[in-house]
Amino acid sequence: MSSFLPYGRQSLDAEDLQAVMDVLKSDFLTQGPAIGRFEKAVTDWCGAKHGIAMSNGTATLHLAAKAMGLKHGDWLWTSPITFVASANAGRYCGANVDFVDVDPGTVNLCPERLEAKLQQAEKDGKLPKIVVPVHFAGQPCAMDRIHALGQKYGFKILEDGAHALGGSYEDERIGNCRWSDAVSHSFHPVKIVTSGEGGMITTNDDELAWKIGMLRTHGITRDADRMVGESEGPWYYQQLELGYNFRMTDIQAALGASQMTKLDAFAARRREIAALYDQALGGLPLRPLARDPKGISGWHLYMIRLNLAEISQTRRQVFESLRAQGIGVNVHYIPVHLQPDYVRLGFHAGMFPEAEQYYQEAITLPMFPAMKDEDILRVRDALAVATGV
Ligand SMILES: *Cc1c(COP(=O)(O)O)cnc(C)c1O
């Protein structure tokens, strides 16, 4: 029996290790020059004006929402098929959270359902302040249409790009904010490039970038032009509002900057693996997610949906058989509104039927750049055993 194949893992090389060693031997473990280098590497790749590195992706969603003015009484809307962090960002700001059901094909936030919900919310006087489209599995959302609705209904757009770095929509790279106010990135080791833990906001909005940067460091500024009254001298700083310590270390940033030099190669390999899966999985009782032809996926995940009507096994049995065969499958995601902490807020099963249906059928297959071509065949064979075909 061959070894366990995880669903995702980082690829680090000698250059990455050296970049971290160099920081460890330098004067700055944090608040040093590696942060700016990493921010520039990401903004150069995406084509965005500003990058603000932070301790993790969750912190970037939180502070971007806060800097956009989200507060008690406001609404943030997102997709139910996402990691809890996309929704929690609203709650950290004291705002209300609601969801828009997904497109049954791509499983991304559905623009038609968004429009219908906006029409109702306008009547009820409860329009959202922020909508968070999540590029699920790496497949970009219908950003042109979501942007047009943002113009019409006056909400801000914060893209959750945690799965999507390396991808694009209508030739606009994810992260360049062509259709949004800001994009959140995550550098957790299962994501496209890693800094251990880490996240970044990219934005083209000068004021938003300044505000997020200020909130990242306790709400403190050293910029005399921003102070209340006069600066008292070169040592002086002011806390302008209640911020946080959400800084990234230089150790993490050096790793992230080194990883960014490999982003194109990682993205190309992920696309290759996806194409190999597409070929290999034909004839099995399952289907991949639909793809929007305007988008190039970052391929964080390769999701399948089981055709449960064609097999006698349950999703759980298929999943357990794959695990027993050494295939590190996963399920992305349990719909956020069904989490007990959201049920407590009044959400319940039946509210977002496309998301709930998807969840019943979904399995995440292994996907990471260091996978070998043979690994894809091994997954295919294991799926054949698990589904009894
Ligand atoms: C990973 C992820 C985040 C942020 O995660 P961190 O672990 O805090 O970096 C946010 N949204 C989605 C969809 C994610 O997958």
Automatic annotation (TrEMBL):
Coiled coil: none annotated. The keyword Transcription does not apply. Transmembrane segments: none annotated. It comes from the Bacteria. Pfam families: DegT_DnrJ_EryC1. Keywords: Pyridoxal phosphate. The keyword Amino-acid biosynthesis does not apply. InterPro entries: DegT/StrS_aminotransferase, PseC, PyrdxlP-dep_Trfase, PyrdxlP-dep_Trfase_major, PyrdxlP-dep_Trfase_small. PANTHER family: DTDP-4-AMINO-4,6-DIDEOXYGALACTOSE TRANSAMINASE, TRANSAMINASE. Belongs to the DegT/DnrJ/EryC1 family. This is UDP-4-amino-4, 6-dideoxy-N-acetyl-beta-L-altrosami ne transaminase. The lineage of its organism: Bacteria, Pseudomonadati, Verrucomicrobiota, Verrucomicrobiia, Verrucomicrobiales. The gene is pseC.
